[in-house]
Amino acid sequence: MIVESASGAQTVEGGDPRWKWSRATAPVTLKDGREDKTFSRFDVSERQASADAGEARRRAAAGLAKKAAEKVASAISDFFAE
Length: 82
Description:
This protein has one helix and four strands. The chain is an alpha+beta fold. Strands 1, 2, 3 and 4 form a four-stranded antiparallel β-sheet that branches. Strand 2 and strand 3 form a beta hairpin. The protein is elongated.
């Protein structure tokens, strides 16, 4: 198994100036290492807010990691079920 991904984060606007928003995104590609063939590709994103911009980024990254892990586990399970 080969997992390729690159994540990024950006500040996004919200309707309330008291809150700082952050969006984290990542494309994820899963490959069969023996054949170098892609068997799954998906994008994940997460948007979170906090009164502190750094905390908003941390929350967005943590949510992104959780979503990506769930999708990776599901894709690997499907790969071996075939």
